Give the backbone structure.
Amino acid sequence: DAGVTQSPTHLIKTRGQQVTLRCSPKSGHDTVSWYQQALGQGPQFIFQYYEEEERQRGNFPDRFSGHQFPNYSSELNVNALLLGDSALYLCASSPDRGFPNVNTEAFFGQGTRLTVV
Amino acid sequence: SQQGEEDPQALSIQEGENATMNCSYKTSINNLQWYRQNSGRGLVHLILIRSNEREKHSGRLRVTLDTSKKSSSLLITASRAADTASYFCAHPNSGGYQKVTFGTGTKLQVIP
């Protein structure tokens, strides 16, 4: 089991460009969440996908969008990049055991380090 | 912000000593989780304690939870250089699936 895999590992983009980050969840997991972690901070929840739909969203602008595919893999898209979007982007997968049972751990990928210049 | 806080922000100890990190949170919770992060890479899940539990052990890790004080502690006994990492507490937001709110983290350095 490869666990959660993210690509690419590192990425440098220019302000105003668009970027797509990819995530493959752990085998058997159907829920994918994305987090942004600025340097020296804890991860901030961006959104969560389940059954190919955005189920929850954090306090992020519409420039941040996502997608989940039938095989549960997911993409995070960020448009009109700002310097402040530079961060480590983490993907986490978990099995959905039905609300309100939230006593499940999330498995994280190694992240994509995005630098906007 | 609903983000919790870890205390201390940074901790430096000698190998073999015990390390204690504390976490405070602001909302009611179903569970609280502790994660470790090495060098700004992915997070590794360490332990989950449910809201009806007061203490939980896993190897050299001991976690306590006090829901009346909205606080938790992580104790690492007999620390090793390999324990050097940042440690985060996190909890699912009430009313929301697995959306997880992370604290600000404690940076632990274990000196050989």
About this structure: The interface with chain B takes residues 4, 31, 33, 35, 37, 39, 41-45, 48, 50, 55-56, 58, 88, 90, 92, 94, 96, 99-100, 102-111, 113 of chain A (CB under 8 Å).
